[in-house]
Amino acid sequence: MDTPPSAPYDLLGVGIGPFNLSLAALADGAAGLRTLFCEARPEFRWHHGMLVDGARMQVPFLADLVSLVDPTSPWSFLNYLREQGRLFPFYFAERFQLPRREYDHYCRWAAERLPGCRFSTEVTALHWSGGLFRAELTDTGTGERTVAHARNVVLGVGTRPVRPEAFAALDGHPAVWHCTDYLERRHTLDGARDITVVGSGQSGAEVFLDLLRRRGEDGTRLRWLTRTRALAPMEYSKLGLEHFTPDYTRYFHGLPGAVRDALVPAQWQLHKAASAETLAEIHDHLYERTIGRPVGDAAVEITPGTAVTDARPGPCGGFELRCRHVDSGAEHVVRTDAVVLATGHRAAPPAALEPLAALIDWDEAGRYRVDLDHRVATLPELTGGLYVQNAELHTHGVGTPDLGLGAHRAAVILNAVARRTVHRLPGRTAWTTFAPPAGSPAPAAPPATGLPRPQEWIRAAAASR
User: Fold this and answer.
1) With CB atoms 3.0 to 4.6 Å apart as the test, which of 144, 204, 320, 387 could cross-link to 199 if both were Cys?
2) Is residue 268 predicted with pLDDT exceeding 80?
3) What is the pTM for the complete model shown?
4) What percentage of the chain carries pLDDT values higher than 90?
5) d(Cα 79, Cα 75) in Å, to the nearest integer?
């Protein structure tokens, strides 16, 4: 359906993942606000390839779409349980972290009922014209094209899988793929007798654990290679978790850009490590598996501190992975039949943004400049609000991809778009004081961090489309 310029939406959302779904839920019922959220896929899907049996969320259930902003909302997880008739089973389960499959089902429950969510609708291009955003929409089922206009746009298109450059020669090979597709492609590993998982985060740990359970006794050699020097668990102390509060976000945003760029990789244990529970399950499984046998009989290799520098087809089949030991610099070759890449995800500008690219005030590394309200800096002639969700790690810190801050960020954006307090937000949220006392000398800028030049970033983003 066309939305004529005389009746623009107040907010158009591009993509419906958990973060834009949170925004849609918090906007529902807000007086005087017209919103539309578009998703190219026919239904809500959240990390569908990683919904393995037993996998749990790394955040408490209160990190749902709305509760940390409005626990009385009908879109809360507790109300979902009530609608499903599962309140008592949840109560007796006494688990703060949900099964990942249940979180996905909860989000689908909300997405199917929220009136502002439209699936099978791709935003193919965004233009700025006549003081409004003009969005070209395509029905992905019928191919029908329509147009919608909006005063503000929020990009919530999610992130895309990262394939390390070392594996460029194996792009498209059916036995080398990213864990995003794990459940759909797991069966392709059935004939492999040597399987290598690359990546030390939660996804890598879950894939490795699932393979241990499924292939533990059939003689298959399982290998886990990680570039990080240790399989350290995710920081989960109560005070450590205060890095995922609005207080820390505000502190981080106020730091010089060079300091922020140095901090994010140094804080990997806050947002990229595996949970202590998953690591413990791996150890428990290996312990049980080797009862009555030497440790070396497990047909398992866990090798941290090892970077894959090149990957090629092997001369006799399979693959050869050239590896370098991070501490010693020693090099060796690993031969394997299949590789699962648990190498993370990266935000990239959506293709729909191309017509607006010249109106965006990119930073020196070709990234968005984002203010505290999550609004992207643009040239003066673009007066509408362009907002981003989960594309501002470099400006807002490690809490950016965390579901626990999703509702708060959505409320901040909604308040900014409405130019009034739609949702009241708390002042101080952490016991920790992150900033130095007022009047302290500013920190010296750290050395350069090797960020890509703007043209390299933009080229990479375009290639990923």
Assistant:
1) 204
2) yes
3) 0.90
4) 83
5) 7
String of DSSP letters for 70-111: -TTSTTSHHHHHHHHT-HHHHHHHT-SEEEHHHHHHHHHHHH
Local structure of residue 317 (DSSP, 8 states): B
Q: State residue 265 phi and psi, 5-degree precision.
A: -65, -30
304-331 b/e with 16+ CB inside 10 Å = b?
A: ebbbbeebeeeeeebbbbebbeeeeeee
Backbone angles phi, psi at 11, to 5 degrees: -150, 130
What sign for the dihedral angle of Cα 447, 228, 164, 399?
negative
Give phi and psi for 38, each to the nearest 5.
Answer: -115, 140
Q: Which residues of 444-455 are buried (b: 16+ CB within 10 A; e: fewer)?
A: eeeeeeebeeee
- Token code pair at residue 440: 């302290």
HSE-up (13 A, CA, CB side) for residue 253: 17
> Distance (Å, rounded) from C-alpha 461 to C-alpha 452?
12
> Quick count: other Cβ atoms within 10 Å of Cβ 292?
5
Question: What beta strand segments (E) does 140-273 contain?
Answer: 145-150, 152-155, 159-161, 176-178, 194-198, 221-225
